[in-house]
């Protein structure tokens, strides 16, 4: 298997043109020097396209081709109040000229600030024209979305369900294009990445990276940092979507290589701890790298912890995949200004 084969298999899955690709790969020299570890690079998945970007757009680009083919007139999805996934579904619907209905889960995250329910992604959902349906969080991620789709169908709509986090086998296929870009961009820069580190939750981002890497970058480890405080559930979902995605693409996949690291999710999903805030601060201070307190800063906290335990050699090249999520930063503003800046 090779990069060329992965690219040729990906061509069998058309996009709807949501993304501006490739996203940049930039060296984080100041942060690498500050941490005294390997060379760190940022893959900028925060700028995948319109609607303030993020990792979900890359999945949606291929998943929504099915919606268009099916003649859908409405996208239906679900997530917590500050879900980046929902915001990107709402953005995609606006771009494709579709209606958007979102099941918004209250109760999974206790609002940490007064701005939580109205700022950041919640505000953008309104601006992008989505209709919001408040639901009580029960732990069932997709049930209320399916029920909402049935209601819309009964009203005469043609709904297309986008799964929680845009995570399923086709979402994983969509995300594997990121590793194809990383393979090409790292080769242009004269290195082979030792690892790609990123935060992982609903699973299809890691699934796409892992199955794609086994074909296009076999010497690169994909390291998922759990942000859901459910590492076993996350690992199981990653494996399920990677098996399904690899079958769609017709490429091999070895589940024994899936690595999900626990211990950086903070006290709970959606709640930052001191390490999360420290990661936000030093990424901003040394690189103007704007992380978010729910996802990417927890991923960065995991990366920092691994560097501090000597996980890599100084001449290794490690890519931090910045999955986006910046809008939620503003919904957490009051919770983030409490700690003074600390370099160590
Ligand atoms: C900013 C951000 N990063 C990472 C993730 C995790 O990606 P996945 O759900 O595919 O594991 C999400 C998912 O919501 C996200 O919004």
Automatic annotation (TrEMBL):
Keyword Lyase applies: yes
Highest taxon of source: Bacteria
Signal peptide coordinates: none
Record PTM N6-(pyridoxal phosphate)lysine, positions in chain: 56
Active site residues according to the UniProt entry: 83 (nucleophile)
Keyword hit for Lyase: yes
Every Tryptophan synthase beta chain-like PALP domain range: 22-324
EC annotation from Swiss-Prot or TrEMBL: 4.4.1.25
Cofactor: pyridoxal 5'-phosphate
GO molecular function per UniProt: D-cysteine desulfhydrase activity; L-cysteate sulfo-lyase activity
Record-linked PANTHER family: 1-AMINOCYCLOPROPANE-1-CARBOXYLATE DEAMINASE-RELATED
Pfam families: PALP
Family annotation (InterPro entries): ACCD_DCysDesulf (IPR027278), TrpB-like_PALP (IPR001926), TrpB-like_PALP_sf (IPR036052)
The protein, known as: L-cysteate sulfo-lyase
Membrane-crossing segments per the record: none
Family (UniProt): Belongs to the ACC deaminase/D-cysteine desulfhydrase family.
Keyword terms of this UniProt record: Lyase, Pyridoxal phosphate
Class of this enzyme: lyase
């Amino acid at each position: 298997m090779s990069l060329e084969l992965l690219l040729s298999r990906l061509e069998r899955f058309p996009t709807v043109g949501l993304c501006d690709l490739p996203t940049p790969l930039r060296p984080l020299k100041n942060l690498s020097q500050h941490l005294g570890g390997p060379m760190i690079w940022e893959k900028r998945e925060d700028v995948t396209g319109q609607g303030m970007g993020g990792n979900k757009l890359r999945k949606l680009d291929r998943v929504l081709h099915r919606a268009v083919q099916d003649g859908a007139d409405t996208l239906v999805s679900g997530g917590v109040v500050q879900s980046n996934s929902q915001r990107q579904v709402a953005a995609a619907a606006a771009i494709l000229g579709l209606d958007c209905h979102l099941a918004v889960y209250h109760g999974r995250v206790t609002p940490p600030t007064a701005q939580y329910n109205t700022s950041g992604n919640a505000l953008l959902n309104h601006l992008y024209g989505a209709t919001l349906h408040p639901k009580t969080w029960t732990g069932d991620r997709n049930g209320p979305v399916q029920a909402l789709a049935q209601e819309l169908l009964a009203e005469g709509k043609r709904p297309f369900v986008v799964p929680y986090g845009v995570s399923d086998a086709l979402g994983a296929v969509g995300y594997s294009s990121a590793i194809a870009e990383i393979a090409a961009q790292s080769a242009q820069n004269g290195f082979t990445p030792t690892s790609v580190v990123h935060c992982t939750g609903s699973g299809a981002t890691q699934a796409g990276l892992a199955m794609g890497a086994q074909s296009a970058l076999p010497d690169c480890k994909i390291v998922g940092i759990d942000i859901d405080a459910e590492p076993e559930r996350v690992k199981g979902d990653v494996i399920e979507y990677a098996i399904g995605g690899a079958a769609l693409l017709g490429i091999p996949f070895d589940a024994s290589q899936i690595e999900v690291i626990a211990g950086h999710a903070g006290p709970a999903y959606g709640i930052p701890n001191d390490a999360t805030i420290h990661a936000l601060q030093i990424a901003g201070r040394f690189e103007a790298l704007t992380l978010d307190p729910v996802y990417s800063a927890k991923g960065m906290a995991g990366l920092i912890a691994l560097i501090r335990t000597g996980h890599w050699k100084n001449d290794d090249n490690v890519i931090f995949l910045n999955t986006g999520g910046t809008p939620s930063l503003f919904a957490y503003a009051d919770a983030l200004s409490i700690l003074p800046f600390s370099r160590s």
